[in-house]
Amino acid sequence: MGKITGFKEEGRETPARRPVEERLRDWNEVYKEWPDSHARMQASRCMDCGIPFCTSGCPLGNLIPDWNDLVYRGEWKQAIAQLHATNNFPEFTGRICPAPCEPACTLTINRDAVTIEMIEQKISEKAWSNGWIKPEPPQHRTGKKVAIVGSGPAGLAAAQQLNRAGHSVTVFERDEYIGGLLTLGIPDFKMEKSVVERRLDQMRAEGVAFRVNTNVGVDISTEELKAQFDAIAVTGGSTVPRDLPVEGRDLKGIHFAMEYLVQQNRRGRGQEFSPEETITAEGKNVVIVGGGDTGADCLGTSHRQGANITTQIEILDRPIDPLTSEERQLDNPSFVWPEYPNVFRMTAAHEEGDNRAFDVMTTEFVGDDDGNVRELKAVRIEWKVWEEGGRPAPEAIEGSEFSIKADLVLLAMGFLHPQHDGLLDELGVNYDERGNVAIDENMMTSLDGVFSCGDMQRGQSLVVHAIADGRACARFIDEWMMGTSNLPGVKRYFRQLITV
């Protein structure tokens, strides 16, 4: 490494966020531009640890020490080449990945981790601004055709890799925009849509074809698809949301989080909705049920829409605060380095207004005479641990009932599995015990020539997993069609390999 004492001399630093009062007036990304000198100083903290656990922590196997060293030396063009060697879309992961590489950093044993995610974003932005990222069309075409169904990060990664291998690739998307949740689910203040569009422009120039407003299984049959293409990859998302079946659930003003976030992203692109269709937090008391990233996205969106007050409730325990707590829970991976830690986090959205409550279970929604939600009733719980073992269960604390004013309720409790009716049922693929698409060791479904990857196969997960799955799936498809493949491999990162 260029500066072997950097981790001793420099502390961790991230780019500054724009002032809250400024960013709440727009939908632009929250971070200020990071000076090159600051990024280089942070890259110098990479400590040449011998065994780069950060690389193991990254599902893509990113060559993190290599491009950290290149950044420290000011060799930015070489850094983007190293970054692209394992990651098709570092501008996405540099913004919306929770960075499992960072808690795996050897420095976290007794110091703050290297600022890996923000360095990754800096490399990609410098490369885009300097024109170093150009279309890379294949020199020869194989004559093989591949259909990618779903245009999220898994589908896009698979499409770009297969196209570069020389196959003719068509990506089918049932919505009006390419990108899946990158485009319609992630708020602009986390990732502006121009970031996605410039990458799509590169892929179009490379020869990837995109077909929007095409719901495979409805607008085009799966039999037609199988007749027209040599291989198919189903790469959609985990789109069936977890519901909250309590009394009053059918009241007006209760929505799934994705209904809310997708509509706002469409409005941001100029679409208009009638007053009856519009879901807005403006002037309302908002309650978000769910404490994860999607809940935080709803929180930041409600702030920008002008909510009166927003409360976020979570049924699970409040994680420990790594900055203030001395408590060490044996079942908490934050103390089993290099695993990803379960700790209390303050996102940019929470910085703008944090009103969270943990160990809270919703019991009922109460409405007015017109059928609009006006109140959420809840009870505080504690998690009971069974003597005989097994998963802890929530138990209501007697006398702890309370209510929260609610004109808008957003359910952000995660997803169960992909939508079965339509594409998947028409194809006739097998499902695993969680309702996801089952695959074999080559990522092929129960149907010959039909592959699957991303959340549709894995279940609800991270953008970095999706890209890794897409790259791996592309190599398996290439091998299946051609007998061999020159595409790079991806280390297997599945929680469980389910064979069909």
- Biggest sheet statistics: 5 strands, parallel
Label the CATH architecture of the largest domain.
3-Layer(bba) Sandwich
Helix content: 25-40%
The H-level CATH homologous superfamily of the largest domain, spelled out, is FAD/NAD(P)-binding domain
Overall average residue pLDDT: 94
Taken from the alpha-carbon principal axes, the silhouette is globular
Characteristic key phrases:
500 residues; alpha/beta; Fumarate Reductase Iron-sulfur Protein, Chain B, domain 2; FAD/NAD(P)-binding domain; 3 domains; disordered C terminus
Polypeptide structure, described:
This protein has 500 residues and is of the alpha/beta class. The chain folds into three domains: 6-129, Alpha-helical ferredoxin (Fumarate Reductase Iron-sulfur Protein, Chain B, domain 2), CATH 1.10.1060.10; 145-239 and 416-482, FAD/NAD(P)-binding domain; 243-413, FAD/NAD(P)-binding domain (3-Layer(bba) Sandwich), CATH 3.50.50. 32% of the residues lie in helices and 14% in strands. The chain has helices spanning 6-9, 20-23, 36-43, 53-57, 64-72, 76-84, 90-96, 101-104, 116-129, 153-164, 181-184, 193-206, 222-228, 257-268, 293-305, 348-351, 423-427, 455-458, 463-482; strands at 145-149, 168-172, 209-211, 231-234, 240-241, 254-256, 285-289, 309-313, 356-357, 360-367, 373-384, 393-396, 402-405, 408-411, 415-417, 450-452. The strands form four sheets. It has a five-stranded parallel beta sheet with strand order 3-2-1-4-16, with helices on both faces. Helix 16 (348-351) links the parallel strand 8 and strand 9 (356-357).
